[in-house]
Amino acid sequence: MHDLFDLTGQTAVVTGAGRGIGRGIAEVLASAGANVVCAARRTNEIEETASIINASNEGGRSIAQTTDVTSEEQMEALAQRAIDEYGRLDIWVNNAGGSPVSQPLIELPLDEWQRTFDVNLTSIFFGVRAACKHFGDGSRILNISSLAGQDPFPGSGHYSAAKAGVNMLTKTLAHELGPKTRINTIMPGFVPTETVKIALDMEDEDFPELEKQLNLPVGRLGTPEDIGATALYLCSRASNWVTGQCLRIAGTP
Fold first, then answer.
1. CATH number of the domain located at residue range(s) 69-243 in this protein
2. What are the CA-CA distances from residue 9 to residues 18, 47, 61 (Å)?
3. What string of DSSP letters covers 109-135?
């Protein structure tokens, strides 16, 4: 059974790996044996993630590559860094995204609409194109979307529209890239990361009340490790017959 989830010797790129869900995914993939290239704009955060992975002395190794995911040139440089450092590229995780703005669509500034699409959707277009230049057979792409891509959240219409685009991009690419490459998407529920705190204008002490209000069947909010575990499944041999899927990982149906 262990062999189904073993990523030893493989190379994974994880964007938005400096904190929250991205860090959780990077750590879990490394624990399964993958060498992980951690990417984000904040150099200190991805260096910290890489240091945590390397300090464990178990599984794969890690390096940091400062990257603006809205730049196609920098995404191509990120893919090349993986090749230069580890000699191969097997897994690409498009995790970077989010929007700190909550505002009705008719009041939303045009530049915020464009920025949200650049960060959440166009970045995935760039990532897929960069990765596929180096992929071999059996490669995998994982996108991180949101429940907002499937359910309406008033005040976040711009973010919802971008994430809905991620979901359809995933389904389309599954046909276009198969059978060489599998691609899937995770739609996380409420995971109290820094990005979520900013978007919802909440503090740590607010989450217990939110947990009560949501009344999730599993009895708690999510963690980056919850998403990381699903990422491992979708990036491993265990999911070899799974592609084009958008999975709700939310502690609720």
1. 3.40.50.720
2. 23, 21, 10
3. -HHHHHHHHIIIIIHHHHHHHHHHTT-
Tokens of 21: 């869900």
Q: Is the pLDDT of residue 1 over 60?
A: no
Give the contacts of 236 (CB within 8 A, at least 6 positions apart): 4, 5, 6, 7, 32
Half-sphere exposure of 188 (CA within 13 A, CB side): 28
Q: Is 95 helix (H, G, I), strand (E, B) or coil?
A: coil
Catalytic annotation present for 159 = yes
pTM (whole model) above 0.90: yes
How far is Cα 176 from Cα 151, in angstroms, rounded to an integer?
26
Q: Which of 92, 117, 159, 190 is catalytic?
A: 159
* 146-179 pLDDT tens trace: 999 999 999 999 999 999 999 999 999 999 999 9
